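Lecture notes, continued. The same structure-token format from the folding unit now serves as the input rather than the output. Read the line below as a description of shape only.
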């Protein structure tokens, strides 16, 4: 059966990734929402309608599945704790990183430059970046994303107390030969923007969307029968 979603995607059928991956359900979302409101486990248990032990077990499962990084940890606004907060887009020089690419010359001297072996996948690219200076990477890189649809390949979210750490990090990567350019911008708290480090999808919205999706699929099945 082929289901066409082209006619009515205006909130009729929403493919919720969190449900598709099976790592969380609506009860998990309600637990997370209550915790982010500052509720205790006892209060969460009472308001969500599950046993306190069940709440703890669900949090442990979400931590294991890396939905949450540390149950019970504080949520902080990085902009209030660090001097500098950067969003950096990185374009990889893949031609320079592939041995058989060859032909690359130094932009100033014109001399041939030796190729640098490139990791075969994006995740290994990130692992390579991390290995160059594990201590510095762990200290300043908050998030690392592979991007699509732009000329840049990787986006890094960086917080640091020192510009020197930022420049040293990218200088080390540049010397390895597979970074073509970096486009970095500072995020500033006084610009009037609010930085929200954690966002939980609204459980009621997800539930309503799932109901709409179920209704839509049932109608499609009837039409295709």
């Amino acid at each position: 059966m082929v289901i066409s979603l082209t006619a009515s995607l205006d909130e009729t059928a929403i493919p919720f990734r969190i449900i598709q991956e099976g790592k969380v359900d609506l009860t998990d979302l309600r637990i997370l929402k209550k915790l982010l409101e500052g509720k205790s486990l006892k209060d969460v248990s009472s308001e969500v309608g599950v046993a306190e032990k069940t709440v703890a077990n669900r949090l442990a499962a979400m931590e294991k599945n890396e939905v949450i990084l540390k149950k019970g940890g504080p949520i902080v606004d990085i902009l209030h704790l660090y001097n500098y907060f950067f969003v950096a887009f990185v374009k990889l020089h893949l031609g320079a990183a592939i041995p058989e690419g060859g032909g690359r010359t130094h932009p100033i001297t014109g001399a041939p430059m030796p190729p640098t072996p490139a990791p075969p996948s994006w995740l290994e690219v990130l692992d390579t970046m991390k290995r160059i200076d594990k201590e510095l990477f762990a200290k300043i890189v908050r998030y690392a994303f592979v991007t699509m649809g732009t000329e840049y390949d990787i986006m890094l979210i960086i917080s640091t107390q020192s510009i020197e750490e930022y420049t040293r990090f990218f200088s080390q990567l540049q010397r390895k030969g597979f970074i073509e350019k970096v486009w970095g911008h500072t995020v500033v708290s006084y610009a009037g923007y609010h930085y929200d480090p954690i966002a939980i999808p609204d459980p009621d919205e997800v539930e309503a969307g799932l109901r709409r999706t179920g209704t839509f699929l049932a109608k499609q099945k009837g039409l295709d029968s």
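Point for the exam: Residues 91 and 152 are 4 Å apart (CA to CA).
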